[in-house]
Design goal:
Helix content: 25-40%
CATH architecture: 2-Layer Sandwich
Number of strands: 8
CATH topology: Cytochrome Bc1 Complex, Chain A, domain 1
Largest sheet: 6 strands, mixed
Number of domains: 1
Structural class: alpha+beta
CATH class: Alpha Beta
Shape: globular
CATH superfamily: Metalloenzyme, LuxS/M16 peptidase-like
Strand content: 15-25%
Oligomer: single chain
């Protein structure tokens, strides 16, 4: 039995995975980047999660969180994000005919976010309150204590959102430096949806990738990767076609997920 997905290597190191699910009427798109709490030193603890929050605060073309949400929700879609130990994911689910819009919004938030100094300070307070909230929830707090015991003094033993001390001292320059290092093309991109593989490949190949020097200003041509490429096997909602961008990482026990109310 043949594989249900196809993997394509893109210039710059990214990978695109397409799965045809012709019985579905929606498309799920996920961009995953190899940047999570395990990759942060103590000075930058929580920066991946901080960036996830900031990327929904507005872009040059969609200057507010409401405009970002309205672009997707206005066509009956859903947009969200999460930070894990070894990756950060941004995803949207839209009706299939609005796949190009979903891609546009996701690329917009990961490449054109304003990272306004005022938003940095506002989100700092939101994240500090989030850290305190999880400490008041025994089912989450005991998980953090368990990880501290398993990995004492290691980044895996820290809360994904960092500590109150590290979040309080992160500067905008720290955030920009980390984002520049982690949000590049040397990631694995997975795309899954239904109906037509050709339509996804066409939309993706015409997309001008907004980051990474090897992709700046030109549309990538798709080609088959070497057999060593890994594909994420994690599922999205059953009733959707899937598009996800994933990095080859080990599993993690906890994920911090943004909700529309935090945008």
């Amino acid at each position: 039995m043949g594989s249900p997905h196809r993997v394509h290597a893109l210039p710059g190191g990214a990978r695109l995975v397409v799965e045809s699910m012709p019985e579905r009427h929606s498309t799920s798109l996920v961009l995953m980047f190899a940047g999570g709490s395990r990759l942060e030193d103590e000075r930058l603890a929580g920066v991946s999660h901080f960036i996830e929050h900031l990327y929904f605060k507005g872009t040059k073309g969609r200057p507010s969180s409401k405009e970002i949400a309205d672009a997707i929700e206005g066509v009956g879609g859903f947009i969200n994000a999460s930070t894990d130990k070894e990756l950060t994911a941004y995803w949207a689910r839209v009706p299939s005919e609005h796949m190009a819009l979903g891609l546009d919004v996701l690329f917009d938030i990961v490449s054109n976010s304003k990272l306004d100094p005022a938003d940095v300070e506002r989100e700092r307070m939101v994240i500090l309150e989030e850290l305190r909230m999880y400490q008041d929830q025994p089912q989450d707090y005991v998980q953090n204590l368990f990880e501290e015991l398993i990995w004492p003094g290691h980044a895996l033993g820290r809360d994904i959102a960092g500590t109150e001390e590290s979040v309080s001292r992160l500067t905008r320059d720290d955030i920009l430096e980390y984002a520049d290092a982690r949000y590049g093309c040397r990631t694995s991109w997975s795309v899954r949806r239904g109906r037509s593989r050709r339509r996804i490949r066409y939309a993706w190949s015409r997309r001008r990738f907004p980051f990474g020097p090897t992709l700046m200003g030109r549309s990538p041509r798709l080609r088959h990767p070497r057999s060593t490429a890994r594909v994420s096997s994690s599922g999205v909602a059953t009733r959707s076609r899937r598009i996800s961008v994933s990095a080859p990482v080990r599993s993690a026990t906890s994920i911090r997920t943004a909700t529309p109310s935090t945008f």
